[in-house]
Amino acid sequence: MNKQEILQQYFGYSAFRKGQEELIDSLLSGRDALGIMPTGAGKSVCYQVPALLTEGVTLVVSPLISLMKDQVSALVQQGVRAAYLNSSLSDAQYRKALSNAAQGMYKIIYVAPERLVSLSFINFCKRIKIDFVAVDEAHCVSQWGQDFRPSYLNISRFLDQLPYRPVLGAFTATATDEVRDDIIRFLRLNNPFVLTTGFDRPNLFFSTLRPQKKSGKLLELLRERRGKSGIIYCSTRKRVEQLCNLLNEKGYAAARYHAGLSAGERMQNQDDFVYDRKQIMVATNAFGMGIDKSDVRFVIHYNMPKNLESYYQEAGRAGRDGQSADCILLYGKQDVSTCRYFIDSSVPNEGLSAEEIAVFRKREHDRLRDMTVYATTGDCLRRFMLQYFGEDAKDNCDNCSNCLTKFETADVTVEAQKILSCIIKTGQRFGVKVITDVLRGKESDKVKQWKFNTLSTFGIMADSRPAALRYIIEQLEQQELVESVGAGYPKLCVTKRSYPVLRGEERVYIRKVKALRTQAEAGSTEGISTGLLAELKELRTQLAKKRGVPAYIIFSDATLADMCRVLPTNDELFLTVNGVGQNKLEKYGEMFIPVIRAYVTGEKN
Ligand code: ADP
């Protein structure tokens, strides 16, 4: 069989995706390779296809136990002999798996990096023929990355101990130049073929919202997405608890996940989500790495994360199956203060000097600023993100909330002058709350205490709504006409750019939302029978329950949608459906085909 036939036979795909073929060819020709591809691009196929084309075994180093389990069950469903070796196995299970492996039962073996220092494992590896070693989530080898795993540094030492060196493939979704260099250096890739396909995920719809009341907005967003699987990220455990309770009260099946729960509960809740017993996962950023659930239809950030790297990684857990999915960020000014607090109180790495910590924090604050600009900009969100990661992009993507929003430009020079003079008159010592109170003429305790009700700026914007005022202040901040100084409760100060505005020499313009066009309907399910799709989904749910695997491991949403398009009434046609290989035809064809046939012949509609 050649690589094309393997792709069709085992994975059910008729064509390679961007970058896959080049990486596969490199590995097959004996050259090390490094693939940098976004989540959902299909990195696994890049080492699974070569694994099936050679005689020996492929070892896959993967950092997460849950990921291994999922990937191995997906492979087994596709008819590939695969197994995993990690600490979730009992001693007896481990020995059994090793003895099976020694008899050549497996083509692909997943291992945790910690395993690579175990003597019994090294001895086992010396006896078998290992053609390839694939390193998944290769950025874990770099201390620059967010997910540094010291045990990844064992990989090259492990390879040294083998009688000959297998071809090495490394894969990651996130790699800055520094991380990429670290991967090559610490894994000791030998003159590798490096391929970067770019970060864009065209199927993801990006949206930023600035609701008055986040909980109300969240419920509205969930009402529009009932029955769909999604993740809600919060910045604190307390918020996770609150929201999870709220959603359950409102009749949603929601699970929770954060580092304060026992390992047992975390595993149970994660399983409930992955196996569709709970549609919604409310979680801190402790949840996610290693979640391979491909049919997550939305990721909502209830709080803004502290940088775009984290945001893109978390939001990117939506739509791994390539179907359209939403990434929504609910922004509130308070999020910025929370992030500042986290940055200032975190100790990045043990052993760093005070000076190094200061440099680290400065960099984190810069990254927070970029994140905040993303959350508040009126420009194309996709373009902003891609440029942040160093890529070119079109001006408009037409698939983000800003591209679908019509803005108008408003001249707010007079408002800006009032705000700036209020900041100066109150001594540049107060935050947004006091400034808006003074401008609106609200006699709050602070206002009375400082006798601000006697100022000329008191009540000069009495007709403005607080949210509108806050919005203008934020925009002034973005244009560096105002500056927030200090952590916790930052105070507003003017800048040198404020004075020309105050003197009437420069005008100030901001963008205001005029109208939001509705999101383009997801093209993928257009023109297919929703009735048939629902029936196929129901059948999939029953089978998944019976076999104890997540539904998407049987068939992805994309594959079911394609079945509704192709309407295969026999085995041959069934094989042409995207995502149906020989093994899945044999396993499931006789159950799915009759349902489709009944629909086509009109016995049902
Ligand atoms: P990554 O590891 O890059 O995040 P995966 O390897 O999990 O992504 O692949 C994401 C999804 O894309 C999976 O459902 C996979 O089966 C699918 N996929 C991979 N290669 C192809 C292909 N050539 N054609 C269609 N779908 C593919």
Secondary structure layout plus pairing:
Layout: H1 3-11, H2 20-28, E1 33-36, H3 43-53, E2 57-61, H4 65-77, E3 82-85, H5 91-102, E4 108-111, H6 119-127, E5 130-135, H7 154-160, E6 167-172, H8 177-186, E7 193-196, E8 204-209, H9 214-223, E9 230-233, H10 237-249, E10 254-257, H11 263-274, E11 280-283, E12 298-301, H12 308-315, E13 325-330, H13 333-345, H14 354-376, H15 381-388, E14 405-411, H16 413-425, H17 432-440, H18 445-449, H19 466-478, E15 482-485, E16 491-494, H20 498-502, E17 509-516, H21 530-547, H22 551-554, H23 557-566, H24 571-575, H25 582-600
Parallel strand pairs: 1-6, 1-7, 2-4, 2-5, 3-4, 5-6, 8-13, 9-11, 9-12, 10-11, 12-13
Antiparallel strand pairs: 14-17, 15-16
Helix pairs in contact: 1-3, 2-3, 13-14, 16-17, 17-19, 21-23, 21-25
The chain binds adenosine-5'-diphosphate.
Overview of the molecule:
- The chain is an alpha/beta fold.
- The chain folds into four domains: 3-196, Rossmann fold (3-Layer(aba) Sandwich), CATH 3.40.50.300; 204-404, Rossmann fold; 407-516, Winged helix-like DNA-binding domain superfamily/Winged helix DNA-binding domain (Arc Repressor Mutant, subunit A, Orthogonal Bundle); 530-601, HRDC domain (DNA polymerase, domain 1), CATH 1.10.150.80.
- The strands form four sheets. Strands 3-4-2-5-6-1-7 form a seven-stranded parallel beta sheet, sandwiched between helices.
- Helix 16 (413-425) packs across helix 17 (432-440).
- The longest helix has 23 residues, at 354-376.
- The model is unreliable at 518-523 (pLDDT under 50).
- Bound molecules: adenosine-5'-diphosphate.
- Adenosine-5'-diphosphate (ADP) binds at residues 13, 16-17, 20, 37, 39-45, 294, 320-322, 556.
- Adenosine-5'-diphosphate is lined by residues 13, 16-17, 20, 37, 39-45, 294, 320-322, 556.
